[in-house]
Write a structure and sequence with these properties.
elongated, 13 helices, mainly alpha, about 375 residues, single chain, TniQ, TniQ protein, two-stranded antiparallel sheet, three-stranded antiparallel beta sheet
């Protein structure tokens, strides 16, 4: 809408919506249905597509509600247990529980991020914009180009000013690890298709996001509270090459700084990858959804042996053809035998045409029938 306002020389998006009060309305989070219908009438985009451009279009997959008062932290985050047992460090989890009405899963303060490769591939500056999914702390990389999402200031339809260079010059993309790239591709797939394919089975998007949020909370557990699972957490953080952010043990993930959230997501990606490859044990009740399918060898069975009853050398049908040839030979010289053979074979003829064909066969074989 800001891009449209700039194109038509309007001062603010409200000028595009006469009769609607959008002051104080976060249109990225929720858009009233009458306003969606008005936007659909003014454009070629249908209402379902417009709704999917807001967080309300991802209910109940990504979040339970756009109203923080209706989102329960414990239900969403601890509905599943993956990395750590559900009853481990319960009191420690209370330290990361936000106050009621202040938390939405995966939603943090708005900071614009974009993929530098996606921006470079745009055909013209009029197409410059940002996607809502890139603004979620759920993703740290572009699922298409496998590079880090960069903070920027977007002038819709004009330019992108990158924070890292403080200009609109071309930005060199920073690649991410394979574990992070795979995790982000799965999350993006869940948002667009509604399901994620795991090694064992396909799971619903809502299950995937809650499983992942449980892993994110688990990797934030202090080692002193993890008991014997502290070695597992240490191995996960060592694999990322970064220490665990000190604030992560007492501040909810969505309220951490962006750099700290990126480290936590990298640790969660490493944990998911290790569980799937069987490199690390997992104590959660739902870890089997990520665990590899066990290799169960199939019994090759018993080799076949020779029967103790040898097969007969001759079959009962071996002499049938010889008997037929002998009967035909006798019928050629004995008219009584010919009549007897014809009467026997005629029992299989049920129509006059069949009898006529049998007579022709006898004639072809040189067998003379009695008049």
């Amino acid at each position: 809408m800001r891009r449209t306002c700039a194109y038509y020389g309007l001062a603010r998006p409200a000028d595009l919506l006469p009769g609607f009060d959008i002051s104080g309305l976060d249109m990225d989070r929720y858009v009233p249905e009458p306003l969606l219908a008005h936007l659909a009438a003014r454009s070629i985009v249908p209402v379902p597509r417009l709704r999917s451009m807001t967080l309300s279009g991802w209910i109940p997959w990504l979040l339970d509600d756009t109203d923080p008062a209706r989102c329960d932290f414990d239900t969403y985050v601890h509905q599943f247990s993956v990395l750590l047992p559900a009853d481990l460090a319960v009191h420690d989890r209370l330290c990361r529980t936000p106050e009621g009405g202040t938390w939405l899963p995966w939603v943090s303060e708005q900071r614009t991020r974009a993929c530098p490769v996606c921006v470079d591939e745009l055909e013209c500056t009029a197409d410059i914009g940002v996607t809502l999914v890139h603004q979620l702390s759920l993703l740290t990389s572009c699922p298409v180009h496998v590079c880090r999402l960069e903070f920027c200031t977007v002038l819709p339809g004009r330019a992108v000013l990158w924070d890292r260079t403080a200009s609109d010059e071309r930005l060199r993309p920073i690649p991410v690890s394979q574990e992070v790239a795979r995790l982000d591709r799965r999350s993006a797939r869940a948002l667009t298709s509604g399901w994620v394919q795991l090694d064992r089975d396909r799971v619903h998007a809502a299950v995937w996001f809650r499983l992942l949020r449980s892993v994110v909370d688990d990797v934030c557990t202090p080692l002193c509270r993890a008991g014997r699972w502290s070695t597992v957490l240490s191995a996960i953080w060592n694999s990322t090459g970064h220490p665990r952010p000190p604030q992560a043990s007492r501040v909810v993930f969505e309220h951490l700084r962006w750099t700290e959230r990126e480290r936590v997501v990298a640790a969660a990606a490493s944990a998911v990858s290790a569980i799937e490859h069987g490199d690390l044990p997992a104590g959660g009740a739902h870890a089997r959804l990520l665990a590899p399918i066990p290799d169960e060898p199939v019994d090759p069975g018993t080799a076949p042996t020779r029967s103790c009853f040898p097969a007969s050398e001759r079959s009962a049908w071996d002499g049938v053809q010889d008997a037929i040839d002998a009967a035909v030979e006798v019928a050629r010289s004995d008219i009584a035998a010919a009549a007897s053979l014809f009467a026997f074979l005629r029992t299989g003829c049920h129509t006059p045409e069949g009898t006529a064909r049998l007579e022709k066969v006898f004639a072809d074989l040189g067998i003379r029938l009695p008049p």
